[in-house]
């Protein structure tokens, strides 16, 4: 037998009234000695990880193809965001496809869970529900199921651990036991966690490294959508996103958010450019708008950005002013990524720069997407996964793109957009969205339908 700390997992052969490692005030608790594991060569492994579809394509996309059997998944989000609704729909879909799903609710009674399912009209098989906050009772039944959902990890408790439910030691102990069940019994465990006012998961931050996958369910207030983001995934990519809309009948998947983001866009307004940004393995087209307002006051001009950091905006403005010959030192500049979308993709630099130039020169850029990273010396660098961005542009009918190596410096970009002001395009070409030669200067490339990974000059 051994004694361990419920917070930092310090182990001691004898009992202590406090933890000497983390200086915690809670006494060490008794636990059975762990069995000795036998090392096995990776090449001799006979149990390849298999996946179970959740029945929702957007969730499967974020997970990397579905739930891995025997994995532990943590789903975090603010109270009321729709975590229980999402997992209720997932459970119903999985049950309908033949999986056995147990929902352990410590926050609602069985009748309340059933009422929500019926109110939302969630279709699918019957999910087994138990209302219990005792983790031992839940785990005793869970080994006969394929998937266990615990809603939430902050409201269950372990009788063998000290502290109240939701305390650091209780959350850690309950998560430990749930993860152990997943690894030893092959049951896929989904833990629901709440987000605090500070924006982190309630309970110990160390809870995230205990599980295999960490997902955050967040609101997009301006579009009225819900976004599921992958923050950690041992079996797939991180930063993948799934988009949903909350309706009276539950969450509805939005498989093509680019169409929604570009809906209502005017393609011939100065200061507007299409921006293909990556979110994990997914490319989302959005619109970036810029407004440049010359001022005659001695006060420092205002610079404001929404969706990109102010630091990035100031850097692009400095490069355009110094390397592009565009006078911006006395102008107020406002930049916004439409729909309230936040992006840290460096390839969005070129779209932001093009929108600023377009607004400053009062020149509308036709149906063109732009992507590339802008350096401090004025160079425009090629972007990663250009083929993914081009394929998404072509799929949505964006037939022209502006990117390296066709334009390599910001002064060339300024000259190319200036030529649009002096050149009246035929209405038919505006409709097709194809921009022809800029008087010998860099061309906007057309996306080749048969080879969307390449440029056609």
Write the layout of secondary structure elements.
Layout: E1 2-4, E2 11-12, E3 29-31, E4 51-52, H1 57-63, E5 67-68, E6 72-77, H2 83-96, E7 101-105, H3 110-120, E8 128-131, H4 135-142, E9 147-151, H5 168-185, E10 188-194, H6 207-210, E11 213-220, E12 225-233, E13 241-247, E14 250-253, H7 257-262, E15 272-279, E16 282-294, E17 303-306, H8 310-322, E18 331-337, H9 349-361, E19 369-370, E20 373-374, E21 380-381, H10 386-395, E22 400-402, H11 410-422, H12 427-432, E23 445-447, E24 455-456
Parallel strand pairs: 6-10, 6-11, 7-8, 7-9, 9-10, 17-18, 19-22
Antiparallel strand pairs: 1-2, 1-3, 4-5, 11-12, 12-13, 13-14, 15-16, 16-18, 20-21, 22-23, 23-24
Essential attributes:
27% helix; 12 helices; single chain; 457 residues; elongated; disordered C terminus; four-stranded mixed sheet; nine-stranded mixed sheet; alpha/beta; Ribosomal Protein S5, domain 2
């Amino acid at each position: 037998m051994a004694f361990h700390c419920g917070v930092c997992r310090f182990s001691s052969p004898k009992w202590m009234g406090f933890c000497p490692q983390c200086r915690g005030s809670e006494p060490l608790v008794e636990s059975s000695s762990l069995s000795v594991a036998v090392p096995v060569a990776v090449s001799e492994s006979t149990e390849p990880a298999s996946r179970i579809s959740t029945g929702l394509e957007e969730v499967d996309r974020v997970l990397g193809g579905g739930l891995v059997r025997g994995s532990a998944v943590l789903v975090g989000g603010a109270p009321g965001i729709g975590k229980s609704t999402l997992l209720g729909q997932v459970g119903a879909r999985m049950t309908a496809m033949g999986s056995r799903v147990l929902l352990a609710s410590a926050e609602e009674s069985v009748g309340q869970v059933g009422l929500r399912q019926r109110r939302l009209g969630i279709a699918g098989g019957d999910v087994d529900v138990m209302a219990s906050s005792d983790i031992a009772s839940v785990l005793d039944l869970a080994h006969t199921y394929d998937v266990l959902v615990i809603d939430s990890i902050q409201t269950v408790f372990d009788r063998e651990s000290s502290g109240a439910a939701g305390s650091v030691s209780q959350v850690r102990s309950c998560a430990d036991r749930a993860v152990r069940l997943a690894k030893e019994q092959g049951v896929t465990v989904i833990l629901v966690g709440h987000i605090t006012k500070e924006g982190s998961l309630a309970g110990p931050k160390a809870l995230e490294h205990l599980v295999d996958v960490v997902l955050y369910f967040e609101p997009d207030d301006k579009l009225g959508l819900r976004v599921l983001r992958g923050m950690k995934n041992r079996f797939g990519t991180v930063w993948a996103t799934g988009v949903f809309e909350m309706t009276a009948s539950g969450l509805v998947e939005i498989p093509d958010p680019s169409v929604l983001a570009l809906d209502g866009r005017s393609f011939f307004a100065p200061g507007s450019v299409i921006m293909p940004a990556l979110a994990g393995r997914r490319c989302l087209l959005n619109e970036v708008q810029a407004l440049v307002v010359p001022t005659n006051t001695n006060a420092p001009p205002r610079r404001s950005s929404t969706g990109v950091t102010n630091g990035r905006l100031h850097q692009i403005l400095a490069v355009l002013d110094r390397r592009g010959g565009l006078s911006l030192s006395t102008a107020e500049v406002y930049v916004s990524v439409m729909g309230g979308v936040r992006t840290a993709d460096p390839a969005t630099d070129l779209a932001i720069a093009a929108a600023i130039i377009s607004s400053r020169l009062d020149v509308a850029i036709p149906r063109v997407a732009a992507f590339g990273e802008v350096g401090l010396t004025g160079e425009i660098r090629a972007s990663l996964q250009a083929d993914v961005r081009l394929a998404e542009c072509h799929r949505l009918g964006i037939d022209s793109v502006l990117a390296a190596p066709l334009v390599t410096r910001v002064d060339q970009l300024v000259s190319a957009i200036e030529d649009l002001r002096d050149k009246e395009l035929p209405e038919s070409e505006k409709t097709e969205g194809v921009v022809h030669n800029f008087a010998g200067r860099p061309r906007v490339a057309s996306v080749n339908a048969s080879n969307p990974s390449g440029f056609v000059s």
